[in-house]
Amino acid sequence: MAKRKTYETVEPIGARILVRKDEPKRETRGGIALPDAAEIPTITGRIVAISAVVENDDEMPLKQYDKVLFHPKDAIPVEFEHDNQLFVVPVDDIVAVFRSND
After folding, report:
1. Which fold has domain 16-21+41-98?
2. Taking a C-beta distance cutoff of 8 angstroms, is the pair 50, 12 a contact?
3. What are the domain boundaries of the chain?
4. 52 in Cβ contact with 23 (< 8 Å)
5. DSSP of 6-21, one letter per residue?
6. pTM higher than 0.85, yes or no?
7. 11-67 residue pLDDT tens
């Protein structure tokens, strides 16, 4: 029986980033419970890794640990963790970066 290889990192290639998706909201601020089927077409998450192409592009203001809003249409799920919350996302699908005034 062949031993299954364990990977330690995932490095996005090209104009892509690796995002850990935030947990989906189960209720609104007002306390209204949302059904599981109520999926919003944009998702938030934290950047885990950035490709060299994105990191070296001064036009792209993204860095590791930024919170981003992305469209999941072309996001590719990565089967790297048991809860499968990692996605390789094309930079073109990042629609916003959350910034604080600190």
Report:
1. 10 Kd Chaperonin, Protein Cpn10; Chain O (2.30.33)
2. yes
3. 16-21+41-98
4. no
5. --------SSEEEEEE
6. no
7. 899 999 999 988 766 666 676 666 665 555 568 999 999 999 999 998 888 999 999
